Amino acid sequence: MDVWTLQKSPELRAVLLLLQSQLGVDSFEADAMPCCDDAIWLAGTSAPFARAYLYTLGQNHERYGVHLEYPQEVAPLYDVFENLRLSSLTGILAVHFDVACVTPLPQT
């Protein structure tokens, strides 16, 4: 997924780049489902049944919201998390997308 070509807000593109650097460029991809500039549907590449709706809309500065989707035969199940720090978001998505190794960001 080329984050720079997405028609999304700078804040959302920035968090997507950080997630790619920690989870791996090929660990998730953008889902084709349309949504606003401050949100995106993601699908795991190793767990394509797992989707996540990531958004910055209505969140505090440098905080993120995510809805995790767990499809089932009858009706999908969801988990909702609000105002997450990047470290928490990364951990949640690593588990959801079945990413075995998370690369830490360089210390500044």
Distance between the termini: 26 Å
Q: Which word captures the global form? A: globular
Structural class: alpha+beta
Strand order of the largest sheet: 1-2-3-4-5
Strand % is 25-35%
Rounded Rg: 13 Å
Number of separate domains = 1
Number of helices: 2
Helix content: 10-25%
Q: Would you give an account of this structure?
A:
With 108 residues, the chain is an alpha+beta fold. It has one domain (3-96). It is built from 2 helices and 5 strands. It has helices at residues 10-23, 86-96, and strands spanning 28-30, 39-44, 51-55, 64-70, 77-84. The protein has a 5-stranded antiparallel β-sheet, covered by helices on one side. Helix 1 (10-23) packs across helix 2 (86-96). The longest helix has 14 residues, at 10-23. The protein is globular and about 45 Å long.
Short description:
With 108 residues, this protein is α+β, with helices and mostly antiparallel strands. It has helices at 10-23, 86-96, and strands at 28-30, 39-44, 51-55, 64-70, 77-84. Helix 1 crosses helix 2 (86-96).
Can you lay out the helices and strands and say which pair or pack?
Elements: H1 10-23, E1 28-30, E2 39-44, E3 51-55, E4 64-70, E5 77-84, H2 86-96
Antiparallel strand pairs: 1-2, 2-3, 3-4, 4-5
Helix pairs in contact: 1-2
Q: What descriptive keywords fit this protein?
A:
108 residues, alpha+beta, five-stranded antiparallel β-sheet, 2 helices, 5 strands, globular
